[in-house]
What we know:
The protein has 110 residues and is of the alpha+beta class. The protein has helices at 2-25, 70-75; strands at 30-38, 51-57, 60-66, 84-95, 98-108. Strands 1-2-3-5-4 form a 5-stranded mixed beta barrel. β2 (51-57) and β3 form a beta hairpin. The longest helix has 24 residues, at 2-25. The termini are far apart. The mean pLDDT is 86.
Amino acid sequence: xxxxxxxxxxxxxxxxxxxxxxxxxxxxxxxxxxxxxxxxxxxxxxxxxxxxxxxxxxxxxxxxxxxxxxxxxxxxxxxxxxxxxxxxxxxxxxxxxxxxxxxxxxxxxx
Length: 110
């Protein structure tokens, strides 16, 4: 009985590890460079100002909406009235069909 319960516990542990590993892999930090714009003022997509970084790769444009945190709020004034090239580092996840990036660092590109 003891061996059986130990075996079952081990199998369940391996299954949980297998299922949760892809979720942790999705949280890997990435760096992107693209055109920083305001979702309200430049793109007319939102009710409130929000920074969006549009990246073009292989002729396809992808928009990354920056999650509202201290880093993105402090940087927003740089791109609110005019678009500028920016480089941002953070984690990306999909929310409601949009790519949302939680930035840890963002600067004007050189």
